[in-house]
């Protein structure tokens, strides 16, 4: 049996009759298993004493352990600011700083879409690409370390 877990947030409630075609539909068991995996694994792998547990600055090297990568992905990209006083984030030489507004873009229909690739590391005061940091092919000829390597990063806000 399937049950839509996005029902409360569903913007298509009136006309949505399908529970199998919706990609957000999961079985109760799948959701419970996912929650269990995050709760049990997070407490031993991610540093929850840190304000932003998936900040790339907290990892000595690019995470390659498949379980760690999975946990980081499940925990979500490091995008502080929306619940923070982001005026405390450091300014660059031109007195510009990271804006949490960059974590979303407005679509032509007015809806907001999350930029799920964008990382902001308060520790480094730099931006990175979540996908390239975790999965980028460092051997590719088109590989650029700017958005990927924690010791480099992008800071021209
Ligand atoms: Zn990327």
What helical percentage do the residues reach?
10-25%
Would you identify the regions where 5 or more consecutive residues have pLDDT less than 50?
A: none
Radius of gyration in whole Å, from Cα?
18 Å
General shape: globular
Biggest sheet statistics: 2 strands, antiparallel
Beta-strand content bin: 5-15%
Lateral arrangement of strands in the main beta sheet: 1-2
The molecules bound to the chains, other than polymers, are: zinc ion
Give a short summary of the structure.
By secondary structure, the protein is an alpha+beta fold. It has 3 helices and 6 strands.
Write up what this structure looks like:
The strands form three sheets. Strands 1-2 form a two-stranded antiparallel ribbon. Strands 3-4 form a two-stranded antiparallel ribbon. By secondary structure, it is an alpha+beta fold. The mean pLDDT is 80. β3 and β4 form a beta hairpin. It is built from three helices and six strands; from the N terminus they run ββααββββα. The protein binds zinc ion (ZN).
């Amino acid at each position: 049996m399937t049950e839509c877990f996005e029902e409360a947030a569903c913007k298509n409630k009136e006309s949505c009759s399908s529970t199998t075609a919706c990609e957000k539909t999961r079985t109760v068991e799948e959701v419970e298993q996912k929650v269990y995996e995050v709760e049990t694994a997070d407490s031993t792998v991610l540093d929850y004493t840190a304000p932003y547990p998936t900040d790339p600055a907290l990892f000595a090297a690019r995470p390659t352990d498949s379980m760690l990568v999975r946990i980081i992905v499940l925990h979500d990209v490091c995008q502080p600011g929306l619940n923070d006083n982001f005026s405390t984030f450091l300014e660059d030489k031109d007195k510009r700083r990271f804006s949490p507004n960059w974590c979303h873009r407005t679509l032509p229909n007015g809806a907001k879409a999350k930029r799920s690739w964008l990382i902001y590391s308060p520790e480094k005061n730099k931006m990175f690409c979540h996908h390239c940091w975790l999965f980028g092919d460092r051997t590719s000829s088109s590989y650029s370390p700017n958005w990927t390597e924690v010791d480099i990063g992008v800071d021209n806000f």
